[in-house]
Specification:
mainly alpha, 2 domains, 4-stranded antiparallel sheet, 6 strands
């Protein structure tokens, strides 16, 4: 079989890209023992489909009865055509203010093809339906059930330089964001831009929280007002910032260019009243009926997870504040153990239901399907992340004395476990408002550290252990009946690296967005109980930004460089948490404010329901007033992206006007004599007839 060197093109490669033998994508293809003939037939069809759309392939052996299909564009003309049509589609759909130049050399000179754009158009060339000019490959389904996945190879030179830059700089700038965008696409670049903006804004609540904790203590009205104001300003700033970035990156409105979902099941085809094209139709009323199932789904989440969290919290209250018998120091860990074991189990089951429900809703596009799934995931994450704190703030603190009798169930259970004839000691139950502060410490410090370890270090250790185990197994197999994979010497190191990348997990930026949105919720909803939360988040996010880079570059497969014009459905989640945080913070301060300035922070007052409701009412109106004021102020500010868009539109209008005006001037110059016009027309017609005669004579001679 031909060497990988045959895949090289004459173009100048990006730094580090030549280490991948100019390969664009890798397709792991499984050939099971059972159904081997069918798998081999599917393999031939796969190669034919790839070649038919202008791609070239090379095949090498993988691990565990699999093949590695290496794919790249067959010629620069194929790539140029795909990029041109992609940019033209963007312009037609309003994502670009200026259409691409028909002179491809000039167009690519003014706007070079980035590595991310190249990889994206190649991926679409493989996965788009055949009626849209693609190969129609959908991994794991139908004809392509033996196609494990499709993924691009890491550019290790870029990754190494990127991590070095990230680790040596305090903040990342626009140059770094453009590098991320050109390598991993706008979807990943938007995440890092959001993280950087969020990190910068965290400086203000961190400073205010430290000052509040040092001077005023917990449950401060002043800090509550500041956090509410901060959350509104950040949310409105980011809404404007992502529009600015989308314009600068040329992707504004790109979410309207949605990719069809291969799993979409249509009922019939109908003619589009605007375009006249035949489109696939699914009844919106059927989808609405399925979407209504989200209500019982949300209730089921609240019932299952809420019952689990309320049960464990009541058990923890009994053990820590009522029970005073033997083994108390060990029993205090019991509720945590139950939550750690049971919560992921229930969450996994409910997550599976959420995915199934989203599939039943049968969306036409990938973006719509993803947004619907994120909404359901947000409900799950909201309950898992905040239910314990809501229970403490709005059940335990205001109604703790009324709930004490219900703790007798735990008392009875403890008595049964106590040896016969012996009684365990108890202590008087006293509501402790500091409990919510202790919980916030856990969620903002302990949980963040644990998450960092499980997210970054654990996958790396797991990968190393698995590699060692496979090497041992390989040695044992080679000493027996097995056959070692023999690679060409010049390709051996490269192929071993590719086989390792095949076994990496797929990176999903949704998980990182979810983590940051949940953190924002802790800050806006409950940081009044522990004002140092923002300080911890500031430190955590500096590390998180760099650990995410490591996760993308080392412990995960290289993501498909998708485009995006915003952070997607997570923007609505931020807005909801910002609004709810204002109400929650005001209510918590009303319930937990100290008796007097000289009293212990967090000591309980004789709160009244009307006072809590009034504080919530005023907080909401404060939020709405601040939001309106911030929007008015920001509307007066002109951002670089908006200026760029205005300039491009102005130049385009100017060009069109100049062309039309010149045409009118030429017509007026020819107007003085009709005879002159007729003479010119006659000459043009005679020349066209002469050229047609010459072309006809040429065809006759060829025949």
């Amino acid at each position: 079989m031909a060497s990988f060197k045959n895949l090289y093109s004459n173009r100048k490669l990006d730094p580090g890209f030549d280490s991948n033998f100019s390969v664009d994508y890798v397709i792991p293809y499984n050939i099971p023992e059972e159904g081997k003939a069918e798998a081999e037939a599917g393999f031939i069809q796969l190669i034919e489909a790839l070649v038919k759309v202008g791609l070239t392939t090379e095949v090498r052996n993988g691990r565990d009865r699999s093949l590695l299909i290496f794919v790249k564009v067959a010629s620069e003309k194929v790539l140029s055509d795909q990029v041109y049509w992609s940019r033209l589609s963007d312009w037609l759909n309003g994502a670009r203010t200026v259409g691409p130049d028909k002179d491809l050399a000039s167009s690519f000179r003014d706007e070079p093809v980035s590595e991310a754009e190249r990889l994206r158009v190649v991926y679409l060339l493989m996965t788009k339906p055949k009626n849209e000019g693609g190969a129609g490959i959908t991994p794991g389904s139908g004809l392509w059930k033996n196609v494990d996945s499709i993924f691009p190879l890491h550019n290790h030179t870029f990754n190494r330089n990127w991590i070095q830059k990230m680790s040596s700089k305090y903040i990342i700038d626009d140059t770094n964001l453009n590098e991320i965008r050109n390598s991993f696409g706008e979807s990943i670049a938007f995440y890092f831009a959001f993280m950087q903006s969020y990190f910068k804004f965290l400086v203000f609540p961190a400073a205010a929280g430290f000052a509040t904790y040092s001077l005023l203590g917990q449950f401060s009205w002043l800090y509550t007002v500041f956090v509410s104001l901060w959350s509104v300003v950040f949310f409105e700033f980011w809404k404007r910032k992502e529009v600015d970035l989308a314009i600068q990156w040329g992707v504004r409105g790109v979410s309207n260019i949605q990719h069809p979902r291969p799993q979409f099941e249509f009922e019939h085809e109908a003619e589009d009243p605007v375009t006249g094209e035949m489109v696939k139709v699914y009844s919106p009323f059927k989808r609405l009926g399925t979407q209504l199932l989200q209500i019982p789904f949300a209730l089921a989440c609240i019932l299952v997870l809420g019952t689990l969290i309320a049960t464990c919290n009541s058990l923890e209250i009994f053990i820590t504040e009522v029970y005073d018998g033997p083994f108390k120091q060990y029993l205090t860990f019991l509720p945590t153990v139950i939550l750690v074991v049971m919560t992921p189990t229930f969450s996994t089951v409910l997550q599976a239901f959420a995915e199934r429900l989203t599939q039943m809703e049968n969306y036409e596009t990938l973006d719509a399907h993803h947004a619907a799934l994120v909404q359901k995931q947000f409900v799950l994450n909201f309950i898992v992340s905040y239910m314990a704190l809501f229970f403490t703030a709005f059940v335990y603190i205001p109604f703790g004395n009324f709930l004490v009798p219900y703790l007798d169930i735990w008392r009875a259970a403890a008595q049964r476990l106590t040896p016969s004839g012996k009684a365990f000691a108890t202590q008087e139950f006293v509501i402790n408002p500091a409990r919510i502060s202790n919980q916030m410490f856990y969620f903002t410090v302990t949980a963040q550290v644990v998450n960092l370890i499980t997210e970054t270090m654990l996958p790396y250790v797991k990968r190393q252990v698995l590699n060692e185990a496979k090497e041992v197994q390989s040695k044992i197999t080679n000493n027996g009946q097995g056959k070692k994979i023999e690679d060409p010497p010049e390709e051996e190191a490269f192929l071993n690296r590719v086989r390792s990348e095949v076994e990496l997990e797929t990176y999903d930026v949704t998980n990182d967005y979810r983590e940051m949105v949940v953190q924002f919720g802790y800050l806006s909803l409950f940081s009044v109980a522990w004002p140092l939360a923002a300080c911890c988040f500031l430190v955590n996010n500096w590390v998180e930004l760099r650990s995410d880079a490591v996760k993308i570059a080392i412990t995960s497969r290289r993501p498909i460089p998708w485009r995006a014009d915003s952070i997607g459905p997570w923007l609505n989640a931020l807005g909801f948490l910002s609004w709810l945080g204002t109400l929650t913070s005001a209510a918590i301060v009303s319930l937990c404010s100290s008796k007097d300035p000289n009293g212990a922070a967090g000591s309980l007052t004789d709160h009244k329901g009307w006072a809590v409701l009034l504080s919530v009412f005023l907080a909401e109106h404060f939020y709405l007033a601040v939001q309106m004021a911030v929007r008015v102020v920001m509307s007066k500010m002109n951002s670089p992206g908006v200026q760029k868009e205005r300039k491009e539109r102005f130049l385009m209008k100017k060009k069109l006007l100049q062309e039309n005006l010149n045409q009118e001037v030429d017509e007026k110059a020819a107007a003085p004599g009709i005879a002159k016009t007729e003479e010119i027309s006659r000459a043009v017609l005679e020349e066209e007839a002469r050229q047609a005669s010459i072309r006809g004579q040429g065809l006759a001679d060829e025949m």
